[in-house]
Write a structure and sequence with these properties.
2 domains, eight-stranded antiparallel beta sheet, three-stranded parallel beta sheet, Jelly Rolls
Length: about 325
């Protein structure tokens, strides 16, 4: 995501900062206007005093900027380590994605507008050299605080398609549902159509990608719902959303993982919150670091088991004995 788009944004392994007159816009509000890419944010500035910095824990081999360009957009200056800055144009004849990749041998990058027009940064990323000559896993997280699947309808289809085509993902994980599950007025059919349409758009842009759909984690609230104890109750729509995700996975040949089942089922979040060593926060929604690590390992194991099963040769009937 560009700069520090919201409070507490702190990706592991990186220190990010921004100063000066950056205007950061989120795609979360229904009334917001684009363009937006997969990152869901846009940071705009046009003066030299608007600076973003990224410092990584280890040296990286390349930096990629993703910018919303157009006929009136300006250039961006990119400085890698102690080297002289590059001047990179974001201008293009028609509005759309400009993706700029620069080789690097540094652990720090800084960027700012060149001053000849606005720069609309959608996001940036770094690539690390293969470890001992062998490629590894690249993991991109596009989680936005308080988002629902409906946020994706406000992203520019052309920009998102171009981003996905460039990334060529092997696996796309959709983990929406927790925020929707607290909406008692959720329309089941409309939600299923929304997520199915999102999967179709992603599949068109990244036809080789597999899908994994995550059933929402267990959650609880004070108020209506099936009781868990101490005044906490399970929102009824959470189970509905898990069923929708499971149905979509079956219909579209995707992998499905039930996050609530991995926690221990209904009311598990309440038990996690009051445990001697709590795994969830007192709001009965958000996980503590230990709880997140536990479920992250469970998801990884499930994905790898599913991959192994898919790669296992199909069993063939043994030859009938002669006699």
């Amino acid at each position: 995501m560009p700069g520090v788009p919201f409070r507490y944004y702190a990706p592991d392994g990186f220190a990010l900062s921004m100063r000066g007159p950056w205007s950061v816009v989120s795609s979360l509000p229904q009334t917001t206007e684009g363009p937006f890419g997969l990152q869901g944010f846009r940071a705009t500035a046009d003066g030299h005093d608007a600076v973003m910095t990224l410092a990584a824990d280890a040296p990286f081999a390349a930096v990629t900027l993703e910018v919303a360009g157009g006929p009136d957009t300006g250039a961006v200056m990119l400085k890698l380590g102690d080297a002289a800055p590059f001047r990179l144009s974001t201008r293009r004849a028609a509005p759309g994605l400009v993706r700029l990749t620069v080789p690097a041998a540094a652990s720090r990058a800084a960027l700012w507008p060149a001053g000849n027009g606005p720069v609309h940064l959608l996001g940036w990323s770094v690539a690390f050299a293969p470890h001992k000559g062998r490629p590894g896993v690249r993991y991109d997280s596009h989680g936005i605080v308080a988002a629902t699947a409906a946020i994706t309808a406000r992203w520019d289809e052309g920009i998102v398609a171009a981003q996905l085509a460039a990334l060529q993902p092997d696996l796309v994980i959709l983990g929406y549902g927790t925020n929707e599950g607290f909406n008692d007025g959720l329309d089941r059919a409309a939600y299923k159509a929304l997520v199915a349409g999102l999967m179709d758009r992603i599949g068109t842009a990244a036809p080789e990608a597999s899908f994994a759909l995550l059933g929402p984690f267990d959650g609880a609230r004070k108020g209506t719902g099936e009781a868990c104890g101490d005044g906490w109750a399970t929102p009824p729509k959470l189970a509905v959303l898990r069923a929708v995700m499971g149905e979509l996975a079956a219909e579209k040949g995707a992998f499905f993982w039930d996050g609530s089942a991995a926690m221990g089922g209904r009311c598990s979040v309440h038990r996690w919150a009051i445990a001697k060593v709590p795994l969830a926060y007192a709001d009965r929604v958000h996980l503590r670091s230990a709880g997140a690590a536990h479920l992250g390992e469970a998801l990884w194991t499930a994905l790898m088991d599913g991959r192994a099963a898919a790669e296992r040769p199909a069993c063939r009937p043994s030859a009938r004995p002669r006699g």
